[in-house]
Amino acid sequence: HMSLTGARDISVIETPPEERYPIQTYVVEQNDQLVRDAILREVNRSGQVYYVYNRVESIEGMAKYISELVPECKVGIIHGQMTERQLEKEMVSFMNREYDILVCTTIIETGIDIPNVNTMIIHDSDKMGLSQLYQLRGRVG
């Protein structure tokens, strides 16, 4: 608004920050070895991973499955049916690197950026809308 009245100039950022790479997106069929490799590649370079699984009723089972798939990693869980206090506790734990992988619902669409999270795996991405996927994609990188 202020730029339209002439009180401020409009700034356009045309280049990403240094050492920021473009986000790479892959759409593949479920493949345990590929999921394991992607997680370990990120964790081995001191990063963290979001594993988006959008079914609250079975998210605990998915977290157990991921724990068994990558037993060398610590797994946390967040979803929208948790209390605000639980959510905050789990997010702080993830930010403090107590977990390598956060199995979560789309609750992470909005919120704080965690610079260590550079890999996101979305389970059943075909069941989500394009704008939702785009919003999620913006949480990494």
Q: In the CATH hierarchy, what is the class?
A: Alpha Beta
**What name does CATH use for the topology?**
Rossmann fold
Poorly predicted ranges? none
Give the fraction of residues assigned to helices. 25-40%
Order of helices and strands: HEHEHEEH
- Strand arrangement, largest sheet? 2-3-1-4
Q: Cα-atom Rg, whole angstroms?
A: 17 Å
Give a count of the beta strands, DSSP E runs of length 2 or more: 4
Question: Count the helices. How many?
Answer: 4
Q: Approximately how much beta-strand content do the residues carry?
A: 5-15%
Could you say how many structural domains there are in total? 1
How is this structure best summarized?
This protein is an alpha/beta fold and 141 residues long.
Describe the protein's architecture and organization:
With 141 residues, the protein is α/β, with parallel strands linked by helices. It has one domain: Rossmann fold, CATH 3.40.50.300. It contains four helices and four strands, in the order H-E-H-E-H-E-E-H. It has a four-stranded parallel sheet, with helices on both faces. The longest helix has 13 residues, at 32-44. 18% of the residues are buried. The mean pLDDT is 85.
Entry keywords:
141 residues, 31% helix, Rossmann fold, alpha/beta, single chain, four-stranded parallel sheet, globular
